[in-house]
Every structure is written in structure tokens, then in C-alpha cells.
Amino acid sequence: MTPSNECDAALFAAAQAGDLVKAREALAAGANVNAANPHNVTPLLEASGQGHLEMVRWLIGQGADIDYTGMREGSPLMLVAFMGKVEFLRLFLGAGANANLAMP
């Protein structure tokens, strides 16, 4: 899925900025929490990469796929492990992320 509509684009922008108010508005307007951009990045990956812990926690609570493997660099868990973000690792593992996930 791609962020092909304004709602998805708004969710991506909110995830990048860590703006929970705008993220809530985008989801209420119909954004797909698991939409992927042309680089196969989801809002969860975007928020993780930008270091927005509360946004990541909220996205997981909204049903974001924590075991997403559409990005060639790996899953969200692999991304935060590579970046050395221990608090994100704890969050993902606590939410049930698969630490043994093999890439397709």
C-alpha cells in the first residue's frame, strides 16, 4: 500500500514530526496505519527512525505492524537495534515483535 491519499500523507507527516494530535486526526479521517511510501517505509518505521517514542507507542496501539518486512533494511525491530535505540527495542519486544524474524 502506498500513501496515495491525503490522509495517509498526513499520517506520514505527523509520524515524521512526532505530532500525535495530527496523527490522531489523520487516522480519524481514514489514514491507513500500515500504508507504505514508495520506499516501503511505514509510519511506524518513520517515527522510529526519527526517534519519536510516544508516536511509536501510539502507532503500535493503533495496530501498526511491528513485524513489517517490506523494507529491505529489515523490520522495525531491526531498524531500532541498528540505531542503538534501547528504549525502542524494549517497546517493540514488549509489544510482541518477533526477534527471530527472517527477511523475505
Structural features, described:
The chain is an all-alpha fold. The chain has helices at 6-17, 20-28, 43-50, 53-61, 76-83, 86-94. Helix 1 (6-17) runs antiparallel to helix 2 (20-28). The model has no long low-confidence stretch (mean pLDDT 91).
- Low-pLDDT segments, ≥5 res: none
Rg over CA atoms, rounded to whole Å, is 12 Å
Q: How is the main sheet built?
A: none
Q: So how many helices?
A: 6
State the helical fraction.
Answer: 40-55%
> Structural class of the secondary elements?
mainly alpha
What is the overall shape? globular
Tell how many strands the DSSP assignment holds: 0
Order of helices and strands: HHHHHH
Distance between the termini: 17 Å
Compute the average pLDDT.
91
Q: Beta fraction of the residues?
A: under 5%
Short descriptors:
104 residues; mainly alpha; 6 helices; 0% strand
List the helices and strands and how they pair.
Blueprint: H1 6-17, H2 20-28, H3 43-50, H4 53-61, H5 76-83, H6 86-94
Helix pairs in contact: 1-2, 1-3, 3-4, 3-5, 5-6
